Amino acid sequence: MSKRPIVLILSSNPAFSRALTESWPGGGDSPEFVLLEENLCSELQRDTYDLAIADAATSEKHATLKAALAAAGKPAIVLHSEGALDDYKVQGSIVELKRVSQSWPVITAALGREILRRLQSDSRASESDRLNTVAQSEATLGRYMVEMHSAVNNALTSVMGNAELLMLEPGLPASVLAQADTIRNMALRLHEVFQRFSSLEKELSLVARETGKKTSQARTAVARG
């Protein structure tokens, strides 16, 4: 879900969209409104909006709009003309409302805001779970590397020691001495790289604590709504 939610208004009636946007509750999380004539609903693209609100003033419009919105699979509110529906009906991700006299814009806007609030909460929870999964994977890799550190370091120390002993042997050809020196230098370089693992465990522990703190804060925010 985008940082600023997008509400798609499907209607060819300017009064419908005007009444709806003017009744939308204010605040920092106000959505961006995008208008589209309902006869273009077949061109809906689900990734371009978070919530659709459709004006189904006639039965013909209702059938077409509902089919298009169901195919898109995003949350939607469909407004019926007064008398065409008993209060409301929920089917899948679509909520159908009866347009009640003058109060329909306020009721629809309040419902729309609640739907967006829940979508944002779900999005934050999903992101927290994703971060937690990534942190756990990195921690597993880090623990393996830390566990291997001692074994690899001991092997490198042995390689360096044997290379230095070989270099002390008298009468060795210059080419052998050069190869022994190369082995010693490469082992020394790898030893320096693995020394970095000594501080890796502390860094992983710090990251795990920070991730756990953020996950806890996100879940608390979701619980509070």
Characteristics of this structure?
62% helix, 225 residues, alpha/beta, 6 strands
How does this structure look, described?
The protein is an alpha/beta fold. The protein starts with 5 loop residues before the first strand and ends with a helix. 62% of the residues lie in helices and 13% in strands. The radius of gyration is 32 Å and the shape is rod-shaped. It contains 5 helices and 6 strands. The relative contact order is 0.10.
Cα distance, first to last residue? 16 Å
Query: What is the structural class?
Result: alpha/beta
The description of the largest β-sheet is: 6 strands, mixed
Number of helices: 5
- Principal-axis shape equals rod-shaped
Kindly estimate the percentage of residues that lie in beta strands according to DSSP.
5-15%
As a percent range, the share of helical residues equals 55-70%
Instruction: Detail the poorly predicted runs.
Output: none
Q: Strand order within the widest sheet?
A: 2-1-3-4-6-5
The ordered string of helix (H) and strand (E) elements is EHEEHEEEHHH
State Rg.
32 Å
Number of strands: 6
Mean of pLDDT: 82
Question: What layout of secondary structure does this protein have?
Answer:
Elements lengths: L5 E5 L3 H10 L8 E5 L14 E6 L2 H14 L3 E5 L7 E4 L2 E5 L5 H65 L5 H22 L1 H28 L1
Helix pairs in contact: 1-3, 3-4, 3-5
Kindly summarize this structure in a few lines.
This protein is α/β, with parallel strands linked by helices and 225 residues long. Helices cover 62% and strands 13% of the residues.
